[in-house]
Amino acid sequence: MTTVVYVACILGLLIGFCENYRLNAYEGTTKCFIEDIPEGSHVLVKWNLGILAGNRKLQPQLTVKLPSSSPTNKRKERRDVGAVEEEGSYSLISHTKGEHEFCFSFPATATHKTSYRTSWGLGIEIEVGRAMEIRRDLMRADDVSDLSKLIRFCIGLIKDIHAEQSYYRTIQEDLLEGAEGTYSRLLYISVSEMVALILVS
Hints:
This protein is an alpha+beta fold. It contains 3 helices and 8 strands. It has a 4-stranded antiparallel β-sheet with strand order 1-8-3-6. Helix 1 (2-14) runs antiparallel to helix 3 (144-200). It is elongated and about 100 Å long. Residues 1-10 have low confidence and may be disordered.
């Protein structure tokens, strides 16, 4: 449990948040993922696509919609990333706080029967970090000492994790040795009983 807390602590310092989704999609549909992202955040979208059935030549399209930076025009900025491969990624730096949309459009054939529609399995991971904040902090000389403290703190956590893993590894080895000894004794007793029964009969 302590190890999990340490790892979560490190990730919390270095990463804003991460969302994972997995679903099925059919041709002629669009699947959008919406995240409320702070200004100045580094956003990384990673996906994994797999054809479940149907036409393998169809390629889904990725479109990104960003919040408007204009106080008068609230219409979202649209970026057509284009056709996506089975595995890939797309990154950006958010310049305006608000909802960012990542939409996967699955093309439809000119004529198709409902029972033969192409289907995909889609896995997507959206990571939102604090790259811009960290970069600005590194440019300020008075933050160097804070950064060194953070590095020393992370190194200390890693050492604690290593020590805890070594402790549990030792316990596991002791339990394994004890189990092997118990098994040997049970085997010896079973063989002795078998010999005794043979002699008696």
